[in-house]
Amino acid sequence: xxxxxxxxxxxxxxxxxxxxxxxxxxxxxxxxxxxxxxxxxxxxxxxxxxxxxxxxxxxxxxxxxxxxxxxxxxxxxxxxxxxxxxxxxxxxxxxxxxxxxxxxxxxxxxxxxxxxxxxxxxxxxxxxxxxxxxxxxxxxxxxxxxxxxxxxxxxxxxxxxxxxxxxxxxxxxxxxxxxxxxxxxxxxxxxxxxxxxxxxxxxxxxxxxxxxxxxxxxxxxxxxxxxxxxxxxxxxxxxxxxxxxxxxxxxxxxxxxxxxxxxxxxxxxxxxxxxxxxxxxxxxxxxxxxxxxxxxxxxxxxxxxxxxxxxxxxxxxxxxxxxxxxxxxxxxxxxxxxxxxxxxxxxxxxxxxxxxxxxxxxxxxxxxxxxxxxxxxxxxxxxxxx
Amino acid sequence: xxxxxxxxxxxxxxxxxxxxxxxxxxxxxxxxxxxxxxxxxxxxxxxxxxxxxxxxxxxxxxxxxxxxxxxxxxxxxxxxxxxxxxxxxxxxxxxxxxxxxxxxxxxxxxxxxxxxxxxxxxxxxxxxxxxxxxxxxxxxxxxx
Lengths: 386, 144
What we know:
heterodimer, A: alpha/beta, 4-stranded mixed β-sheet, 35% helix, B: mainly beta, 5-stranded antiparallel β-sheet
């Protein structure tokens, strides 16, 4: 089928190593990840005509000053304002610009250089409702906010700590094959269940570790893709939804269910046709919500899905094949692009030791923590061009 | 900031604006003030304070004194403070409370057990505690 992103191809992906600390600025991280993605594609920076950038630490700079810094003359710029939903959204905006003939080569990148305290300081003043009506009240940061969601999920659906543990342990197993991941040792159920308590019912390994890193992909027109020696991907569909359902913080299964039917209809396939999912894994409960919202399992059954399905690299339905943020680390806004990077790398067949057999997969984003929840959901279905 | 003496660090303080002044002045006076949509077709209680009704986009919102009764939707025990101002408070119970008029308020539940049975569905009643210079904060306490 023709598809809504006809004439657009993804041809490269790049990632910096994830580190607990680094002297690198976000400009340097964006440059490094962008350079890696362009090398992967076989294109020089001189061909780049557009940038889609997301970074919490970028202000007072912005995507236009990044273009200046890197010396890119840009016909298309996008700056992600939707936190971890921005990677998929930036990719979709870039694809529309290429489809419409605005430009031929766009780098989509995200980077941040956080540690625990700078992450907390950013979140405390993330937006007005958090700053005035959650942080002064003692919400406990993102950990507290998602502890509230986790308890509710457990009580509504009968999920246990072990169910979230299985998910985290599988992701850690995947991360052991990702040279860029921060966590290098296996996670046991005993270690998961008895880890330091953070915000009940969450313990240490339910919580992402804020860190330093960057991810990028390269989108091109079909015309440019034909010049390149390597394989390419098409975007079958991409959707975003914000503040949905409005005024209902604890609705289930959340934003993705509001566009899943449309996503699959536009993609011309269904959840059974996917070979992997790269989910936004700030906390395991949100992956459960995404598995349900994206129709990969029925509402209220993700904990049973994770009990019955091997989601590791060896499994029948791999999830977060690079270990995700939970095991690679959360480099701020790059958390919204790590899954895009990983999905593209897998579909291009360049995932090395962690390569899974795949032709088609879903990448999802989630972000803009506000009054009790993340407001922004996004997802795209990508497919290798055969 | 992490090395600062916890006793010296204030909790984050709200910035009182024209929009939020009735809420914070009410709290200082021991009243839980909430907005309600003035449209007869809507009439929903609204929190946090808005410039219009987020249900029907009506321009008219009026302030009323809520009963202060509500119930716990979900809760956590915060053990790692998100801000140094809370270092001396952990562990404490923090909850999403639905007030009986139908709005969601996040607040500490002082005196609630930090371990043990679920508190979901438990009735609570508003109270107001010292939060900083000239500032009282709505919290909720478990009812028998």
